[in-house]
Amino acid sequence: MRTTTLFLIVFGIFLIALIFIDFMMIVSLLKTGDERRKLMVWKASFFTLLITVLGLVLDVITAVLQAEAMRNNPFIELSVIAMTYFLTLLYYKKRYGG
């Protein structure tokens, strides 16, 4: 019983963190700033789009090769996109200062 409760607490914290990251991704895309900030957001957005498209292409290829329907969970995809965006944004903030 204790292991299940601990797992649910950790999973709940992780789920709340993912929802927060998703929300903050949208806020950071809408926030205005100087040219340096726009450059960092543009580069992070481009890299995130590249990773997203490559992941979806891989999903399509896998579904075609296995001859089955695609099974995508939108929350998982959004969470991976948000984590990719924030990690690359942190990288570019460290690289260009900010």
Taking the sheet with the most strands, its summary is: none
Count of DSSP H/I helices: 3
Q: What count of domains describes the coordinates? A: 1
The secondary-structure class comes to: mainly alpha
Radius of gyration: 17 Å
**Beginning-to-end CA distance, first to last residue:** 46 Å
- Poorly predicted runs: none
Mean pLDDT: 87
Fraction in beta strands? under 5%
Percent range of helical residues:
over 70%
The number of strands is: 0
Q: Rough shape?
A: flat
Topology pattern, helix = H, strand = E:
HHH
Describe what this molecule looks like in 3D.
- 9% of the residues are buried.
- The chain contains three helices and no strands.
- Helices cover 86% and strands 0% of the residues.
- The chain has 98 residues and is mostly helical.
- Helix 2 packs antiparallel against helix 3.
- It has one domain.
Relevant terms:
single chain; 98 residues; 0% strand; flat; transmembrane helix; membrane
Topology diagram in text:
Layout: H1 2-30, H2 35-66, H3 74-96
Helix pairs in contact: 1-3, 2-3
Task: Briefly say what this structure is.
The chain has 98 residues and is an all-alpha fold.
